[in-house]
């Protein structure tokens, strides 16, 4: 979603994510200090990774991102010196026995068929009782909601110092990327993939957090 390069990504991202403390905080609520093996997909520059590493000291944390410059910047952060970074497509992820697989602001980028395949793969990669935590953007149910949430989002970015053109450019591709992927449809995909419980602990505007338990 954010078109900033790796150098400016951290600063721009925090100016653009509405209520980012609540959003990332909810994601983090479902990662536990006792988790031993964690996979983060589309990790970017490691904004969330730093939070995970702080909450789960000593955990085996692996991160995947397709942008080598993002991976490079994440790897330079002292707090992430023990994290394994892999440059690659999240759709090619592999492994087993994960306590948690996490993805934020990325799954809406891939098309419906790839998303269904990825969701099923993630379920297989989790240990019994493991969690898939997806914090992402989902299309609202009505046109009224879309326009209301977009206006509120632009106003927030303006208050954070972005110009009107920068804010509008952030919003412009949103509906094309989200397609018809609502929180309800995504939750249904997780259930069809075999997750035993699916909950939605956070929802605000276009943003939501969906958690699936194996």
Characteristic terms for this protein:
single chain, 214 residues, alpha/beta, Rossmann fold, 7-stranded mixed sheet, 9 helices, 7 strands, globular
Q: Describe it for me?
A:
Helix 3 links the parallel strand 1 (37-41) and strand 2 (60-65). Helix 6 packs antiparallel against helix 7. 42% of the residues lie in helices and 23% in strands. The protein has a seven-stranded mixed sheet, with helices on both faces. It has 214 residues and is α/β, with parallel strands linked by helices. The chain has one domain: Vaccinia Virus protein VP39 (Rossmann fold, 3-Layer(aba) Sandwich). The protein is globular and about 45 Å long. The mean pLDDT is 92.
Rg over CA atoms, rounded to whole Å, is 16 Å
Unreliable residue runs: none
Give the overall silhouette. Answer: globular
Strand and helix order? HHEHEHEEHEHHHHEE
Distance between the termini: 29 Å
SSE layout:
Blueprint: H1 9-16, H2 20-29, E1 37-41, H3 47-55, E2 60-65, H4 68-75, E3 84-87, E4 98-104, H5 112-125, E5 126-137, H6 143-159, H7 164-171, H8 174-178, H9 183-192, E6 197-204, E7 207-213
Can you summarize this structure?
This protein is of the alpha/beta class.
């Amino acid at each position: 979603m954010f078109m900033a390069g790796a150098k400016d990504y951290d600063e721009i991202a925090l100016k653009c994510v509405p209520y980012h403390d609540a959003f990332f905080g909810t994601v983090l609520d479902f990662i536990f200090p006792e988790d031993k093996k964690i996979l983060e997909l589309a990790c970017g520059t490691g904004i969330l990774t730093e939070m995970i590493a702080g909450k789960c000291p000593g955990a085996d944390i692996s991160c995947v991102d397709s942008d080598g410059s993002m991976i490079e910047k994440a790897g330079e952060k002292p707090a992430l010196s023990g994290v394994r970074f892999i440059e690659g497509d999240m759709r090619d992820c592999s492994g087993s026995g994960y306590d948690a697989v996490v993805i934020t602001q990325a799954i809406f980028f891939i098309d419906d068929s790839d998303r269904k395949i990825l969701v099923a793969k993630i379920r297989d990669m989790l240990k019994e009782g493991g969690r898939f935590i997806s914090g992402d953007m989902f299309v609202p149910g009505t046109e009224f909601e879309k326009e209301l949430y977009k206006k509120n989002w632009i106003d927030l970015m303006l208050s954070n110092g972005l110009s009107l053109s920068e804010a509008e450019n952030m919003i412009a591709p949103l509906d094309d990327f989200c397609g018809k992927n609502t929180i309800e449809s995504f939750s249904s995909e997780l259930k069809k993939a075999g997750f035993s419980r699916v909950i939605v602990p956070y929802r605000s505007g276009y943003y939501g957090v969906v958690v699936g338990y194996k």
